[in-house]
Amino acid sequence: MEERYFTVGMAGHIDHGKTSLTKALTNVETDRLKEEKERGISIESGYAPLNLEAGVSVSIVDVPGHERFIRQMIAGVAGIDLVVLVVAADEGIMPQTEEHLEILQFLGVERCIVAISKIDRVDEVMLELVKDDVKERLLKTAFHEAPYVALDSLSGKGIDELKQIILTELKAMKFRDAYGSFRLPIDQVFTVQGQGTVVRGTVYEGVVRKASQLLLLPGGIFVKARQIQVHHEESKQARAGQRTAINLSGIERTAVKRGDVLVDSDHFLVTDTIDVALQVIGRKFAPLKQRTAVRLHIGTSEVMGKIVFFDRKELEQTPDEVLCQIRLDEKIVVRRGDRFILRRPSPMETIGGGWVIQPNGDKYRFGNETIDMLRHHQQGTPQDLVIDALNKYILLDLKQLMQQTSLAGIILKETLKEGLASRVWLEVSRQGYSLTKTFIKIKDELLARLQQFHEDFPMRTGMGKAELVQSVSATYPKSLLEYSLNLLLEQNEIQRSGQFVALTPFSPNLPKKWHVRIEQIIGTLEKDGFQAKKWEDYFIGSPLPKLEIAELTSYLLESGQAYRLREDTIIHHTAFENALNKLRQQTGPSFDLKQAKDILNLSRKYMIPFLELLDGLNYTRRTEDQRHWMEDRT
C-alpha cells in the first residue's frame, strides 16, 4: 500500500492541555523555546511524529492557544488534514476556542475530533455537562458529527482510544496529492552551525528530493535542497502531507522569512492582488468600510492590504458569501482554491475567511458587471473545469468532457489545445484525454510494481503484461494503462520480451540469499555432464525452498544455461554444446543413431533423448532412421 502522510492539529484555549496531550500521544515535548517553558504557554507551533500503523505517517501540530499568538496559530493550522479540538473538562468552551473553530472552518478543515481533557478534575455529571455544551456549540458548524473522547494526559486515560479514532478518521480521508508540483510554505527559518540555512514547513503538494533544484518565492531565488529531514531523521525525500526541514544551499538566513514558499517549478504565481470569495464570522462586528486596512493570513504568510468591494460600501455581518478583492502591500504566492483568514489589524479580531478565486486580480469597476465576472471566475476557468473533470473521471473523450464541463465546443477545443501545448494533460490515442500528473502516477505505480516483482522473482524474465495491467486496473481504465505501457516502452523505461515486461536495466539473476548454494548446484550439474542425476537429487539436503527450486529450473531452461534431456533430468549447456559440436564435426549432411553412439559414446538412456532434443530445437530433421542437419542452424 502507498504510504499516506497526514498532519493533525491540536487546537483550543490556552492551558486546556494541548501540549500535554501531544506529549502523551507522541512522547515529544513540543514547547522548545525558553519563554514557553518559563511561562507554560506555547508561543510557536510545535511538531511531533505520531506512530499509528504501517502505511500511515502522521505529524502532530501543537498550535498556540493564547489570543496574543493567534497569527502563529493560523500559520500552524494552515495545511492540516484533521483537528483535535481540546476542551478542558473543568472549564469548557472558552472565547479562544470559538475563534479557533471559526478559523479552522474558514481554512477548509473538514474533520474534527473533540478531546475532553483533564477529566480527573471533574465528576461524571460535570463531564456530561461539558460534553453537551460542546455538542451544542458545534451543532451549526462543519464539525457537528465530530467523535468525542474523554481523556487525561497525565494518567493516560483515553489516549489509546484517541489514537484509534485519529487512525479511523484519517483512513476515511483522501490524502494529499504527491504528483503535482512541489510547494512548501515556510513557517520556520533558522541556522545550524556548519550547515547554514534551514527552513521548516508542511509540504502542501508534490515531492521534494535531496539535491533538488528549488525556487524560493516571491523573491525568485534559486536554491538547492542539500539535506532533508522528517521529524529530525534524515530522508531522501519528503511528500505532500509531511512535516519537513530542508537544509538549503545558495542562500543566507537573512534572505528567507516565514511566509516565503519553496517550489520546484515556475508554474506558481507571485501576486499582490487577489480576487476572493469571503465568508464573515457568525457574530456581529464593527462594519468594515471600503478600502479598510486588513491583515491577510494565507498559507504561512501574514500580509497587510486593503479590501475592495464591488457591490457595497461597507461589510457587515451577513450569511452570504461576499465576492471582493484584496490588494496587498507585499507580493505573495497563491493558487486558485487556497484558503485564507482575514483579520482587522486594530482592534485585532477575525473578520472572516474564504478561498482565492483568481490569484492574479486586476482593477475592476464598481457594479454588477464585475460581480457577474467574479462569479463566473468562482465557478472556474475552462482549464479549471477540464482539470476537475479529469481528476474525477481520469479519462474522458471530447463528448464526455463537454457533458462534464458544460463548455461550448469551440471553447473546449481551444482549451484542450492549450492544455496539450503546456502538457497539463495528454491525448490518449482514440480514447480521450487524461492529466499528465495521472500518467506520472501510473508510471510510478507500474515501475514500482515491476521493481517489487524483480525483487520477489529475480530469476524470471519479467512480469506478465496482462498480470501487470490487472494489478492496477481497479484504479485506472485499461486503455490508459495500455497507453502508459506503450509510452514507457517508447521512453525505454521498460522492455518487453514476448508476453513479459521488465525494467529496462533488468536481466534475470540469482537471488542474493541463495546465490552461493545455487552456484554450487549449477557447478555440480556442469561437472556431471551427460551423467547428470535426476534433477531433484541435486537438492537432497539443501535448504532451498520448493518455490525457489521451481524458479531456478525455469531460469536455467529459459536462459539456455541448461536443457531438459528427460522429464526428470536436465543437463548443463556446456555438455549439450560439446556433444553438438562433436557430432557436427564428425558427421556429414546426415547421420543415423549408430554413428551418433559411436561418436559420443553415450548409452541409449541419454542418446535417444539427446537426438530428440536436437530435433525439437531444429538442429536436425528426422526421416526414418536418418537425421539431417538443418542448414539454417549450421
UniProtKB/TrEMBL annotation:
It comes from the Bacteria. Keywords: Cytoplasm, Elongation factor, GTP-binding, Nucleotide-binding, Protein biosynthesis. Residues 3-174 form the Tr-type G domain. InterPro entries: Beta-barrel_SelB, EF-Tu_GTPase, EFTu-like_2, Elong_fac_SelB-wing-hlx_typ-2, G_TR_CS, P-loop_NTPase, SelB_WHD4, Small_GTP-bd. It is found in: Cytoplasm. Translation factor necessary for the incorporation of selenocysteine into proteins. It probably replaces EF-Tu for the insertion of selenocysteine directed by the UGA codon. SelB binds GTP and GDP. This is Selenocysteine-specific elongation factor. It comes from Planococcus antarcticus DSM 14505. The lineage of its organism: Bacteria, Bacillati, Bacillota, Bacilli, Bacillales.
